[in-house]
Amino acid sequence: MKKYLMVRSPEALITESKIGYGWKHINFSEHENTKSLIKEIIDKNGSIGRMKNQVINFFSLKEEDIVLVPVRKSVIIAKVLGGKFYECDFRSGHGANQIMVEYFKKDGKVIKIPRSRLKQNLESRLKLRTTIADLSKFAPEIDELLKNINIYGDFNITDVFQEKIENSIIAFKNELLKSLRKGNTRLKAGGRGLEELVQELLEIQGYSQVDILAKQNGIGKSDVDIQAVSENNPFLKDLLVQVKHHDGITGKKAIDQLITYEKEEAIDAYKWVITTGNISDDTKNYAEKHQISIMEGDEFVDWIYTNLDKLKISTKESLGIIEVPKLSWL
Predict the structure, then answer these.
(1) pTM of whole model > 0.85?
(2) Which parts pass through the membrane (predicted)?
(3) Cα–Cα distance between 121 and 133 in angstroms, integer?
């Protein structure tokens, strides 16, 4: 049966006709089946936890399977060709374990489908903060997209106009990230304003209770800034979040604060470090080993941009965001 997956693959691999996944310290291509792969991960990592299904889904991709790769506010589609590769020195995100694919193109350029053109449920599914997700239930809609691409050569997108839009979006995100890092906003000082921004974004995502916890709420160096739970949506997992307002590198301290947090609510919760800064490959590997997810500055502004229409007016004012139409002549 054909598999349909969302894979948050590094964009750097698009030009190489590949998709990539993390686990930099494990060479997937050395394994013939998922059983031996899972065993090596557990032997080296101590556990695999909630990532088991993601690992199995990625490893099991075969020829003719379909992959959707989210990029900014669009999605690109690829057909799996097969063949696994391992690039231990890959430095453009989590993509050391790679699979050859064929991206759907027009005139030599990868076709980007705006997420706004997708049906609501599929668009919402692509917003999940997970690296790999099963899209089998959306197979009919994805097949319809592929039918349009195969018949008309694209998805009725005016490429030049779309490129202008994307360039404007990129410029906006770069300016927003720069302002956040330099403190050139009217968010509350001392990191509180950034925590309140993350709190609002999580509430938009559907979390019914998002609490900013008191400082130094753990024992010793352990600490959590935000706890989020959802009583109404079983697909939203409880979160414990460390929020860092950094202009530069966020180090392992943020990871350690979550690792050592041992209160009862931490047992089944997903742990995240959200920072306006960057995180080194070494720290990313350290976080991955301890099953802690990371959102760096560029991903954070992506999250803000995706939810601009839902943010409070006062929040947008604090960020310095105004929304007015802009003419762009072709």
Answers:
(1) no
(2) none
(3) 14
What domains does the chain contain, in order, with CATH numbers?
Answer: 4-152 (3.10.590), 182-319 (3.40.1350.10)
Inter-axis angle of helices 34-45 and 52-59, nearest 10:
140
Helix axes 159-182, 297-306, angle to 10 degrees: 120
Task: Specify whether the CB–CB gap between 311 and 196 falls below 8 A.
Answer: no
Rounded Cα gap, residues 130 and 68, in angstroms: 13
What distance in Å separates the CA atoms of residue 64 and residue 257, rounded to the nearest whole number? Answer: 43
∠ Cα 153 155 161 (to 5°): 105
pLDDT in tens, the chain (330 residues): 899 999 999 988 999 999 999 888 889 989 989 999 999 989 888 888 778 999 999 999 999 999 999 987 889 999 999 899 999 888 777 888 999 999 998 888 898 888 888 888 888 888 887 889 999 999 998 998 888 777 656 555 455 466 678 888 999 999 999 999 999 999 999 899 999 999 999 999 999 999 999 876 656 677 899 999 988 777 788 999 999 999 999 999 999 999 988 765 666 789 999 999 999 999 999 999 999 999 999 999 999 999 999 999 999 999 999 988 877 654
| Residue that the structure tokens 């050859």 belong to | 100
How far is residue 73's CA from residue 309's CA, in Å, rounded to a whole number? 13
Residues 6+ apart with CB under 8 A from 295: 129, 272, 273, 274, 275, 303
**Identity of residue 157:** I
- The count of other CB atoms within 10 Å of the CB of residue 243 is 24
Q: How long is the chain?
A: 330
